[in-house]
Amino acid sequence: MPVPSISERGLFRWECGPAGAIDWVEGVPRAAVVGLSLAQELSRSFASHLPFEDKLVVASETGAVAGPWIWSGLPRFDPGSGRFAGYIGLARREGTALPSATGSIAEAPVAPGLDSAALRELIHELRTPLTAIIGFGEIIEGQFLGPAHRAYRDRAGEIVRQARRLLGAVEELDLAAKLGSGGERAGGAEVAALMKSLEPSLSERLENRGATIRVKVRSGADRYAMDQALAERLVKRFAETVADTADKGERIDIVVDRVGPQIALALSRPRSASGLSEDDLFDPAVMIGSTSSTLDLGFTLRLVRGLAAIAGGSLEIAADRFVLMLPAAISPKA
Question: Residue 178: phi, psi to the nearest 5?
């Protein structure tokens, strides 16, 4: 029996240049797609040079690829100059599964039996060059070695910001490994104690923005099924990023409750994020708020969603709140 082609399986590979015009495809006739520009349909991603996934774009009005396709892509950069060189990715019909190799880093599951020593070595190998990039960028931005044109300083500042985001994701690799191993769940994290320890720092962050916080832990939300330090890192990353999008005069409500076998931590959705679709909220290219601290909501929500999935939970988006669901510890039988 002949092996079905990529297009018969409902997906094809593609590449495009920095202007957005597709210049290579595999799995469909070249004439059907080559020349199609993605820059207008995906203007936010092209402007920020960030990865994108599950974006609906019509490939053609007629022919074998007519109608909407779901596009996902990763940015490419010239190895010599470092300049943006376009995207490479996959397009699929609705209902066709996207190969896991193209999934986002934050949502990639940790391989079972991953050696902790090898992971530490990997983190070290990634952290070292990123730290160097941040240092060089700060030197240029601060003009520590002499005057630099404003355009270079602005570019250096953006490089520093993006490198710090990537470094933060690298630092979460060990958290993902521990969550995936299931070996850090003995005892469980006390929910009330965790929220009590986080409340002062959250209050201070919101106070600096002219906002307030109210925390309520309902009975039954006793323990997370994970180590105290791991639960604190995950919840803190989630809560602080949402708090950083609050506007002056706003109050962020945090309610923690037991829902079946899981514990739900709900944060009221800030006004700056109201009216945005779920796709926009998870899109790192969407700018929310007007200060640098509020630009990373999409990145963090994607990261938290991936880590929660590894832990056996989820991140739910409601009209008026964000809800982080994590497994509750099983009470020992008497």
Answer: -70, -40
Mean per-residue pLDDT over the chain, rounded? 78
What's the Cα-to-Cα distance from 263 to each of 128, 179, 222, 323, rounded to whole Å?
A: 37, 16, 8, 10
List helix spans (H) across 145-190. 150-171, 173-181
Does the pTM surpass 0.85? The reply is no
* DSSP H or E segment with residue 71: strand 67-77
Query: What SS3 class is residue 206?
Result: helix
Closest CA to 57 of 36, 28, 87, 32: 36
The count of other CB atoms within 10 Å of the CB of residue 126 is 16
In tens, the pLDDT along 148-201 reads 888 888 888 888 887 887 777 676 666 666 665 554 444 578 899 999 999 999
Burial of 294 (0-12, 13-18, 19+ CB in 10 A): buried
Q: Are 308 and 106 in contact (CB under 8 A)?
A: no
| 3 state SS of 290 | coil
Q: What is the Rg, in whole angstroms, of the alpha carbon atoms belonging to the chain?
A: 22
pLDDT tens for each residue of 307-330:
788 777 888 888 889 999 988 887
Helix or strand run (H / E) with residue 306: helix 297-310
In angstroms, the CA 190 to CA 232 distance is 10
Higher pLDDT pick, 295 / 97: 97
- Higher-confidence residue of 295 and 280: namely 280
Task: Give residue for tokens 């909407």.
Answer: 68
